[in-house]
Amino acid sequence: MMTFTPPPAFEPRIVFENVSKTFRRNRVLDGISLEILKGERIALVGSNGAGKTTLIRCLLGEYTYDGTVSVGGLDPRANRSVVLARVGFVPQIPPPLKMPVGELVSFAASVCHSDPKEMVRVIEELGLDFGRIRRLPFVKLSGGMKQKTLIGIALGRPSDILIMDEPAANLDPEARHIFFHQLAERKDDSVMVITSHRLDEVAALVNRVVEMDMGRVVLDDRVADSVDMTSRMSCDLKLVRADEAFARTIGEWGFEGAGTRWSGMVNGPDRLRFMCMLSRYTGLIAGLEMVEGKEVAPCAPEI
Amino acid sequence: MNAFLRAAWLDITESLRARWFMFYSMVFGGIVVLLFVFGLTESRILGFTGLSRLLVTYIQLCVAILPIFVLITTVRSLAGDRDAGIFEYMLSLPVGLAAWYWGKMIGRFTVVFLPVFLAMAGAAAYSEYREIGVPWDLFAVYTALLVSLAWSFLGFGMLISTLARSPDVAQTGAFLLWLLLLMFLDLVLLGVMVREQMPLEVVVAIAVANPLQSFRTAAILLFDPQMVVLGPAAYVILDTLGREGYLALALAWPLTVGTLSAALGYRLFRRGDLP
């Protein structure tokens, strides 16, 4: 029987000190200073070109930069293997790897000194039949299946820091719920950095928001940490009149009903997204009741 | 399995699944099959017959097509991997940069050398079966020369892949390098330089430095060490170094220049932005 010795854990503390990055003459990061401590879940938001991905690549030791980045007291560039052994990463765009899924999991587990069975367990929890996909080329999977596989690899290994670039973007409602559960289990012992173009996508998953614009931090604020990441809310909706477009949209959220009455469940962390969706139909809404509960039901559509 | 072997194996398996590899293998396998079909084992030229004749022709064709194949497939896939985000993800895993870079190079060498070698080995096996007779000494020398040539151009490919930030730039750079080395073969620009009475040292230095030239001369000096075929610069070098000396140079120099190029590529890779 194989034994796996997990890499040594370290204090999950990330420090950016006056970090700048310039591509030719284009300054993409401009003197970023940030300190992220254990238990913090950061939403890194900003529009395209704000510098989110560049900041993450500096954190992963993939880019050179001016200034200092320290992860657990170590320079991620000079101590790649030690630092990255404790960092789980989910990219926004899955790599177009031709290798079978089983081989990818096996490769990742091998270099991370982790048990591939644990990664497979997370992948299956997210709703994939690993036995069916393990021989399929990774690149041939659907967007959601790729995302689940990469999340499984990131969460299925011992890590103190999770860096996720739009992680739930391609997940179906049930997988989102399980994903939120997985994150909830780790929320107090690790650091999470979740990037998104839109705050409403990730607001409920985090307790701190860092907004970037033109390579600078323009907002660094706390978020009230009162939402249970695993909760679900029962929701009843009443409309002033039936509407076909609304019926289609609410159907995607797994709601049941017809005409002017609709009811269903919404994931706690998805409630802001839900409200944003409803805001598009403000003129139609005659009544809305949301009650926090734990029932199992459909929750949110794919984005 | 350590990270180096993992990275090498990863590159081998990814290459085996790629379309370019299938095409590449078919080209070299096809060349050998065509040489047999056209009866090159039975013809006689410059005293060579049987498999020797086929090997000499095969190696001449390799001079023309192996370098460009190695360069283009290497830079396209490596620069393409970086462009497509494969480096971003794979290098977010705890793999050492040395293990990743050199593992990729060894993996890539395996997949570019094996089809060329196996085509030649297949011809030898078939000749044994048909009792044509296999010149094993020539086979060994040509194998060593192919290793040397493939390694040198792989080294150039690794360096270009590191320098270029996009697959298109990498491909253009690879093509220009191949063209440059091809142009400075003895019978092309070097011949013109000799005719124009350029300093002999410059002409000889260029001829010695060009791994394509070393390979070509070493491949043909075994059967025709005459100036009209070798070219003037190679003839002078051969006259100075002797047959064994030139063969040693032709084996060692491309290996050295390939390793140095790859090492420079690694240095830049380690110091620069990875994805």
TrEMBL record, chain B:
One of its GO terms (molecular function) is ABC-type transporter activity. Keywords: Membrane, Transmembrane, Transmembrane helix. One of its GO terms (cellular component) is plasma membrane. The chain crosses the membrane at residues 20-41, 53-72, 84-102, 109-127, 139-163, 175-194, 214-238, 245-269. This is ABC transporter permease subunit. It comes from Magnetospirillum aberrantis SpK.
